[in-house]
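Hi R.,

As promised on Friday, here is the backbone we talked about, encoded as structure tokens. Could you run it through your design pipeline when you get a chance and send me back a sequence?
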């Protein structure tokens, strides 16, 4: 056969520790039809500060694979909401083989065509809150690459048409495909006139959507005559692949014939015509390929299958219970992204007759609808039962309607298909089903009413049950409840939604309360964060008493907005917002930085040196507003203004020291009881904020941060500067003037210069 190799790659992305599905990295691939093997090359490498992160710790990386829709993962083993179906997926854990790089390979033989999704994440961390830019963070980058190998010109089998084939000695198998249209109840493949070896040493394998595997439906033609393999309830509007494989060790050329019969369940007395030249009449795609046979290359000898199935005779007519009943369509009404309602014509109340099922179809658009949640709700109208013990069973299945042919029991699965079963009766009149990240395509819902007897379920007589049916697509399950937020996420051109839980709640719908915060704990944490800002009251009083009115206004601004920002920032239900969250956050950050700025500028005592020192206050406010608008969580937003203000203060103090020829402030009491304690308290607050704060201890560590910062301001704020009073020059015999005494008092750094005696200073 002729193989074509395709190569796909994605841009490397930074992985994050897992907290919810909103923290994973999702990659979208598309596998073409007729693919025989898909190989994912998973590349992971470390970076730190723009270079290779050889010193970064090794953290395992988990990768999930799923066809048709994103994986529904649960690495924290939390509880899913009630009535939620969890589809399966493949998982792979990558370990590190080199200090800064590792690779992994994931092979899929004969993968299903269409959309494939990869999800990757790091393990859950301890939740440390780090200051952005404080140190070079270790980054783990993940890049998947896909290599597919597909066959071209696969022979197409037409229903009722016999295809001749000769298998040369060097060939091991021949591959065909046949398209199955809608309303097909059975596919029967038969191998005829096998010649060239004794007993027809061939295996016949059939699989839907992709070439067969070793565990596909298999029949050994040596043990069954005629060699017929049937597939009941095949997938509609899909390709079925037929593989005829030779037994190992068989010499010579083997010739045989292959034919396919499709049974049309919409016309029970008729079978499909033997040959339809027009593809449109069978709803078949135009990309058929060639009509000849295709011999595949050598392959490893297959093992004897354990699930070899006996041939099923193809019926000329169908029994009544094998008929496919008319499928009622639904009307699609798009309200918003992942907000779609499916309305039933002449609904939403549906009548389920006793003698036949009611079948409905829900069409989900490719790619667009797989990122939400498919919701289904059945509600039985008990008054319509007329006192009978009626149970209405619903079977939701993908690709083909699934109705049970046995009236005594109702199941929602066969040997090759499995669906989701719902049931309502007079006792339990409501049933719900939620499918997160559903596969796209056609979903069929079959409703059937049966009466419960002492011998099991039997068909009802003259009782038509009425059921309220509601089907819709939503972004998240119950909008993530009160302890979660439904987020709309995007990866390249693919949209999907996921819940981000808070207040210790977990799970796919934020319904797992195993680690949830109690109401008392939420109230305590809110009060701690809010009432700790009351510590700014003493600095405000000191500033007002010392005539620092501008500084006092800034402290009041900070205290007010910090209190209400933390009241609005709580993760639980104890939340109170007086403004928009973004406004409160900006004002809180601006007030904190302005408090540092005005305090350090006040310590510099610039008024006697710079006549218009208020310019620095205004300049600082404008620069800090600009910096916060650029990046509110950056390290230099705090360090930049602080260092600049400290530099101004250092220059002013150095100028005074040189001019006065003694250290400024000149008194040891000012250093010992005010400056050193205030600096130590501020340093302790910064250390707690930068290195100790985590998500678990945030409530009390950040409250301590409030107390320490406000306390340091009370210590560092300089004493009141008494205004100068120039009364003219005094006689020189007195040795010093009134103005000289005032300046001397100011430089002593006393809290209240009026306490000391001016005469004593002049005399000394």
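Update: got your reply. Pasting your designed sequence below so it's all in one thread:
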């Amino acid at each position: 056969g002729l193989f074509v190799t395709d190569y796909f790659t994605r841009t490397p992305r930074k992985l994050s520790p897992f907290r919810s599905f909103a923290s994973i990295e999702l990659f979208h691939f598309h596998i073409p039809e007729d693919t025989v093997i898909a190989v994912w090359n998973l590349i992971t490498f470390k970076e730190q500060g723009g270079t290779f992160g050889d010193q970064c710790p090794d953290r395992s990386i988990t990768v999930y694979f799923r066809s048709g829709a994103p994986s529904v993962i649960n690495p924290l083993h939390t509880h899913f909401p009630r009535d939620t179906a969890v589809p399966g997926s493949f998982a792979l854990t990558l370990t590190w083989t080199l200090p800064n790089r590792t690779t992994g390979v994931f092979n899929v033989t004969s993968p299903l065509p269409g959309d494939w999704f990869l999800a990757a994440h790091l393990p859950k961390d301890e939740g440390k809150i780090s200051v952005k830019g404080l140190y070079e963070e270790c980054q783990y980058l993940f890049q998947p690459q896909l290599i597919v190998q597909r066959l071209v010109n696969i022979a197409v089998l037409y229903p009722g048409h016999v295809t001749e084939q000769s298998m040369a000695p060097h060939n091991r198998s021949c591959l065909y495909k046949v398209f199955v249209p809608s309303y097909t109840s059975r596919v029967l493949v038969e191998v005829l006139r096998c010649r060239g070896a004794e007993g027809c040493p061939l295996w016949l394998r059939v699989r839907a959507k992709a070439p067969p595997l070793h565990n596909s439906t298999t029949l050994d033609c040596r043990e069954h005559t005629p060699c017929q393999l049937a597939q009941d309830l095949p997938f509609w509007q899909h390709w079925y692949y037929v593989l005829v494989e030779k037994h190992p060790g068989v010499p010579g050329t083997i010739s045989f014939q292959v034919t396919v019969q499709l049974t049309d369940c919409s016309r029970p007395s008729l079978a499909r015509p033997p040959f339809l030249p027009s593809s449109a009449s069978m709803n078949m795609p135009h990309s058929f390929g060639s009509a000849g046979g295709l011999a595949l290359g050598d392959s490893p000898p297959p093992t004897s299958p354990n699930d070899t199935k006996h041939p099923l005779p193809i019926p000329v007519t169908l029994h009544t219970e094998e008929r496919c009943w008319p499928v009622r369509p639904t009307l699609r009404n798009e309200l918003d992204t992942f907000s779609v309602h499916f309305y039933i014509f002449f609904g939403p109340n549906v009548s389920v007759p006793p003698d036949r099922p009611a079948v409905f179809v829900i069409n989900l658009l490719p790619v667009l609808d797989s990122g939400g949640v498919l919701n289904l709700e059945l509600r039985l109208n008990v008054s319509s039962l007329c006192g009978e013990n009626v149970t209405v069973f619903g079977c939701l299945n993908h690709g083909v309607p699934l109705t049970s042919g046995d009236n005594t029991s109702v199941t929602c699965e066969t040997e090759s298909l499995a669906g989701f079963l719902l049931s309502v009766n007079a006792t339990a009149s409501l049933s719900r089903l939620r499918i997160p990240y559903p596969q796209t395509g056609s979903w069929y819902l079959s409703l059937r009413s049966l009466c419960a007897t002492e011998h099991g379920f039997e068909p009802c007589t003259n009782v038509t049950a009425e059921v309220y049916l509601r089907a819709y697509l939503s972004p998240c399950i119950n909008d993530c409840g009160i302890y979660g937020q439904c987020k709309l996420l995007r990866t390249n051109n693919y949209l999907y939604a996921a819940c981000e839980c808070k207040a210790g709640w977990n799970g796919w719908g934020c319904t797992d309360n195993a680690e949830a915060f109690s109401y008392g704990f939420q109230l305590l944490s809110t009060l701690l964060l809010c009432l700790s800002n009351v510590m700014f009251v003493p600095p405000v009083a000191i500033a007002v008493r010392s005539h620092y009115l501008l500084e006092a206004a800034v402290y009041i601004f900070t205290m007010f907005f910090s209190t209400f920002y933390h009241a609005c920032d709580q993760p639980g239900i104890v939340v109170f917002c007086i403004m928009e969250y973004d406004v409160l956050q900006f004002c809180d950050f601006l007030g904190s930085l302005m408090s540092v700025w005005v305090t350090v500028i006040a310590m510099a005592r610039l008024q006697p040196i710079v006549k218009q020192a208020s310019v620095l206050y205004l300049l600082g406010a404008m620069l800090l507003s600009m910096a916060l608008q650029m990046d509110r969580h950056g390290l230099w937003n705090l360090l930049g203004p602080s260092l600049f203000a400290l530099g101004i203060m250092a220059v002013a103090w150095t100028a005074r020291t040189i001019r006065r020829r003694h250290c400024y402030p000149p008194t040891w009491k000012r250093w010992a009881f005010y400056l050193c304690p205030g600096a130590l308290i501020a340093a302790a607050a910064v250390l707690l904020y930068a290195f100790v704060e985590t998500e678990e201890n945030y409530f009390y560590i950040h409250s301590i941060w409030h107390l320490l910062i406000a306390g340091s301001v009370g210590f560092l704020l300089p004493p009141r500067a008494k205004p100068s009073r120039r009364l003219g020059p005094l006689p020189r015999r007195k040795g010093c003037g009134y103005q000289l005494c005032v300046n001397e008092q100011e430089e002593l750094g006393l809290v209240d210069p009026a306490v000391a005696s001016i005469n004593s200073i002049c005399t000394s």
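One thing I noticed while checking it: Residues 636-660 form the longest helix (25 residues).

Thanks again,
M.
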